[in-house]
Design brief:
This protein has 652 residues and is of the alpha+beta class. It is built from 15 helices and 35 strands. The radius of gyration is 25 Å and the shape is globular.
Length: 652
C-alpha cells in the first residue's frame, strides 16, 4: 500500500520520516477496530501522491497528499464514498491524521499547544496560554505503563477553539512538525504512547458514534495541514505563522491583509445607543485616523435593554426604528463622508424562538427546548437565505466590514439532530459555502470572525476571515496583551483584534499610552464612548494610531517571545516581531502588576553582521547598534510607564 511517509519525505526532516511506519496517514474504525483497505490505484501528481483504497463492504477512500515545497508543508485530504448497495459499516472513529513512529519511544519528544479563547478577568490569564511539555523516559523499567498521551481538544460546547487552538507541534531535537485541522467543530489531537518502549502515535480525530454512509454517499474528512520545520519551538511557531499567512489567510480586495484599525461600539455602550450617539463616535473615529466604523449587535428589532441583544437575534431583516428612524443608510453615508468604511454585526446561526426567522421557518431550526434555536446550515435553503440576507445588507449599505458572531455552542443541538455526528460535516460544509460565496461576491468586505470572542478560531474559519475578535475580555491591559502575545505563538498578528474600551460617559478617565500599546501586538480597535474623550486625549491617541499604522506590517512577520510567558502577577514580558529577512523588527516590553524600571532582552531574527537604527516610535530616542550586540548583549527598555516599544531598521 502507498505510504504517506514516501510523500512527506520531500518536506519533512529525515529523522522524522526514517521511523514513520508505512500507512496512509489516516484511520477509520468500526467497532473500535481499524478498517483494512486494499490499494486499487495510485499516482504521483506534482510531487505529491494520490491513491484509491477499497474495503470489502463497498467503501472507497480517495486519498491525496499535496506537497508544498516552498513552505515545507503538506496537505492531506481523504474522502470516503460508499459504492456498495447497502449501508456502510458503522464508523466508531474517524481520524484524518494517524501517524506512527516505530521504536521511537517518547524520549526526547517535546510537544507544544496553545489554549483557546475563553476569557477571564485575572492576570496572568488562562486564555491563549503556551503549553509546552516533554515526554520523560520510564522510571519504573522497560514495559511499565507510564501514563497516556498528551491530548488537546475543542472543548465541551462544540466550538473549535473553546479548549485549545486546533494546532499541535511536535519536535525531536531540532526537527519538528506542526499539525492543524481545517475544521470548525468538535475535534481532538493527541500524541504519545501507553508505554515508554511502544510506538509513538499522533492522531487527530472527529468524534462520531456509529456513523454510516448510505449507498453513493460521500463524506469529505477535514483537511490536515502538516508543516515541517528545523530549529526550536519558536521556529516551529514561525513556520506555522508563515503558513497561515501565506496559504490560509485570504486577500482583501486583492491585497494581502494587514492588521486593521477599527471602531466598534459594543464594549462600553452595549445596547443603549441611537443614531445621534453613533454619529458622535464616527466623528471621533475619523479624528483618530481609524479605517473602519462598525455597528455591533443591537441594530435590529426586538432587542432588550442594557446588554440584551439576544432576544432580537433572528430579526436581522428589520432595523430597530427607535434607534434608527430612517434606517441604517444615513449613518453609513455619514461614516463614509468622514473617510470611514462602514461595518455591521451579524449572527445567522442562532435565532430566538420568538424571532421572525424562527416563526417563518421552523423547518430550518434545531430545537432542544431552550430559548434559542440553531439554524441548520447543513440545509441548502438555510445557506441561500444567509447569503442573500447578508449580501443584501452589504449592497444596500456599502458594507466593508462584517463581524460574523456565534454566541452559543452547537454540540447539544447537533447531538439532538444526529447522535452519530455526521451532521457536523454537512453543517460546516454549508457554513463554508456561505462565507466563500459572500467573499467571492464582495471582495472588499472584511470578515471579522467571532464566536462570543475567540471560541471558533481554526484553519476553516481563518480561510474565510480577515481578522478575528479573539476574546470578549477587553477590560484590563495586562490581560489583553498577554492573550495577544500567546496567540501570536501560532497565528499572525492581524488575526488578533483587541480593543481599548471606554465606558459610556467615562471618557474623562485617563487612558495611558501603555494601555493602547497593550493592544498593539495584534489588530487595534477602540470600543465604546470614545466621543467622550477630551480633545487632548484624542490627540494623544491619534499619535499612537499613526505610529501603529507605520509598523503594523511587522505584526504578520516572524514572532519571538523574548521572555517566558507570565505565570505570576509580578511577571512582565517582552516580545519581538521581525521581518523574515531580518531587515526590520519591533520589540514590545511590558511590566507585570508589580512596577519595574527596565527590562533587558536579547533579540532574535536580526542579522549579526548588520547595523541597525533603533528608535522609540513614540519619542525621540535614537541609537545605532550592531546585530551581534543585539543578539548577545541585548536591548534595554525603560518601563517606568509600564510599557515600552523600540523599532529597528537595518542601515548601511
Amino acid at each position: 500500500m502507498q505510504s504517506i511517509g514516501e510523500a512527506l519525505a520531500a518536506v519533512v526532516p529525515a529523522v522524522l520520516c526514517a521511523r514513520l511506519r508505512e500507512g496512509p496517514g489516516w484511520r477509520a474504525e468500526s467497532g473500535g477496530v481499524a478498517l483494512a483497505w486494499t490499494e486499487r490505484s495510485s499516482s504521483a501528481p506534482d510531487g505529491g501522491v494520490a491513491w484509491t483504497l477499497t474495503h470489502p463492504s463497498g467503501l472507497r477512500a480517495e486519498c491525496s497528499v499535496e506537497i508544498d515545497r516552498p513552505l515545507n508543508a503538506a496537505r492531506v485530504r481523504v474522502a470516503l464514498i460508499n459504492d456498495g448497495g447497502e449501508l456502510s459499516p458503522p464508523l466508531s472513529a474517524i481520524k484524518p491524521l494517524y501517524l506512527i513512529w516505530q521504536e521511537l519511544g517518547r524520549d526526547g519528544v517535546t510537544v507544544r499547544a496553545v489554549s483557546g479563547g475563553v476569557h477571564a478577568g485575572y492576570y496572568p490569564p488562562h486564555a491563549f496560554r503556551d503549553h509546552a511539555a516533554a515526554f520523560l523516559p520510564s522510571t519504573t523499567g522497560p514495559g511499565r505503563v507510564e501514563g497516556g498521551p498528551l491530548r488537546i481538544e475543542s472543548g465541551p460546547d462544540g466550538r473549535s477553539s473553546n479548549g485549545h487552538l486546533p494546532i499541535l507541534q511536535m519536535r525531536i531535537g531540532d526537527a519538528g512538525l506542526v499539525a492543524a485541522l481545517e475544521w470548525s467543530g468538535l475535534w481532538y489531537q493527541q500524541i504519545g504512547s501507553a508505554r515508554w518502549d511502544q510506538d509513538l502515535v499522533w492522531e487527530a480525530g472527529i468524534p462520531v458514534r456509529d456513523l454510516v454512509l448510505a449507498p453513493n454517499e460521500r463524506l469529505d474528512l477535514p483537511t490536515v495541514h502538516l508543516i515541517a520545520f528545523r530549529g526550536d519551538d519558536d521556529d516551529g511557531g514561525n513556520a506555522c505563522r508563515r503558513y497561515v499567512y501565506d496559504r490560509i489567510c485570504p486577500d482583501l480586495d486583492g491585497y494581502r491583509p494587514v492588521p486593521p484599525l477599527s471602531y466598534d461600539h459594543w464594549f462600553g455602550i452595549f445596547n443603549e445607543f441611537d443614531e445621534p450617539l453613533m454619529r458622535r463616535q464616527a466623528d471621533r473615529a475619523a479624528e483618530l485616523g481609524l479605517e473602519y466604523f462598525a455597528v455591533d449587535a443591537g441594530w435590529f428589532a426586538g432587542c432588550g435593554a442594557g446588554s440584551d441583544f439576544s432576544s432580537g437575534v433572528g430579526n436581522l431583516g428589520r432595523v430597530d426604528r427607535n434607534k434608527f428612524p430612517h434606517g441604517l443608510e444615513p449613518l453609513a453615508n455619514y461614516s463614509r463622508d468622514r473617510g470611514l468604511k462602514f461595518g455591521l454585526w451579524f449572527e445567522l446561526e442562532r435565532a430566538h424562538r420568538d424571532s421572525d426567522l424562527a416563526r417563518e421557518h421552523p423547518e430550518w431550526m434545531i430545537d432542544v427546548g431552550a430559548p434559542f434555536l440553531h439554524a441548520n446550515f447543513g440545509l441548502s435553503a438555510v445557506q441561500d437565505h444567509a447569503i442573500e440576507l447578508v449580501s443584501g445588507w452589504i449592497e444596500r449599505l456599502g458594507l466593508e466590514w462584517g463581524r460574523w458572531d456565534y454566541n452559543f455552542g452547537p454540540r447539544v443541538y447537533w447531538e439532538r439532530a444526529d447522535p452519530t455526528g455526521k451532521i457536523q460535516f454537512a453543517y460546516l460544509s454549508g457554513l463554508y459555502r456561505v462565507l466563500d460565496t459572500l467573499m467571492a461576491r464582495h471582495p472588499r468586505w472584511l470578515i471579522e470572525a467571532c464566536a462570543g470572542g475567540g471560541r471558533r478560531i481554526d484553519f476553516g474559519t481563518l480561510r474565510r476571515s480577515h481578522t478575528t475578535w479573539f476574546s470578549d475580555y477587553t477590560g484590563d491591559a495586562p490581560v489583553c496583551r498577554t492573550m495577544q502575545s500567546g496567540a501570536n505563538r501560532f497565528l499572525p498578528g492581524h488575526l488578533l483584534n483587541s480593543a481599548v474600551c471606554v465606558w459610556r460617559g467615562a471618557g474623562g478617565a485617563a487612558v495611558s499610552t501603555s494601555e493602547v500599546l497593550s493592544r498593539m501586538c495584534g489588530a487595534l480597535s477602540f470600543n465604546g464612548d470614545i466621543a467622550d474623550w477630551s480633545s487632548e486625549t484624542a490627540a494623544r491617541i491619534a499619535e499612537c494610531v499613526a505610529a501603529y499604522r507605520d509598523f503594523r506590517h511587522l505584526l504578520v512577520a516572524d514572532f519571538y517571545p523574548l521572555t517566558p510567558q507570565p505565570t505570576r502577577p509580578e511577571d512582565g514580558e517582552s516580545v519581538q516581531f521581525c521581518s523574515r529577512d531580518g531587515a526590520e523588527a519591533i520589540v514590545f516590553s511590558f511590566a507585570g502588576i508589580t512596577p519595574t524600571t527596565r527590562m533587558t532582552v536579547r533579540l532574535r531574527g536580526v542579522v549579526a553582521e548588520d547595523q541597525y537604527l533603533v528608535w522609540d516610535p513614540f519619542g525621540s530616542e535614537e541609537i545605532r547598534r550592531q546585530g551581534h550586540e543585539l543578539l548577545s548583549e541585548g536591548l534595554t527598555l525603560p518601563l517606568l510607564s509600564g510599557a515600552a516599544v523600540r523599532r529597528l531598521r537595518r542601515v548601511d
